[in-house]
Fold:
Amino acid sequence: MKSTSVSPSLQQNVMDTMRQKLAQANHFLQKDFPEPSISYRQRGTIAGSARLQDWEIRLNPILLNENKQAFIDQVIPHELAHLLAYYQFGKVAPHGKEWRFIMENVFNAPAERTHQFSVHSVRSQIFTYCCCCQKHELTVRQHNKVLKGSVCYVCRQCGEKLKIDK
Structure:
């Protein structure tokens, strides 16, 4: 996999936003939350992830570079809210009421579960399969499972086994 770098100034913007949101949470919840580490190792179409046990936020460097401030404004509070919900409430539903409380009341941000960034540049190769009624798009992982014979996909509409479209 080709590594994508994030400029020092963009990394600084990420850290500044994370620290500002952490200060908001500390003030609102009367806590002194530890500062999480930030890494730029998230891959695929996922913008970011919160690693609860490692107290780490992983960010997708490609989507960050493509969306800069919008990414920072949306993804940093989203992932930080996961960490804070875990720290404050223990093991809870990923986008449950505790996470929503932090997003809406602590960060004054919409509690959106997914991002709306274009993923064209990070989407893996798609394989077209077909049945008698339509075409289906399978990911590389799904396609490889078919090739290995470990899985057989069927259409939910007509029930026919999917075959590679040549």
Observations:
- The chain has two domains: 8-121, 124-164.
- The helical segments are 8-29, 61-89, 97-106, 140-148.
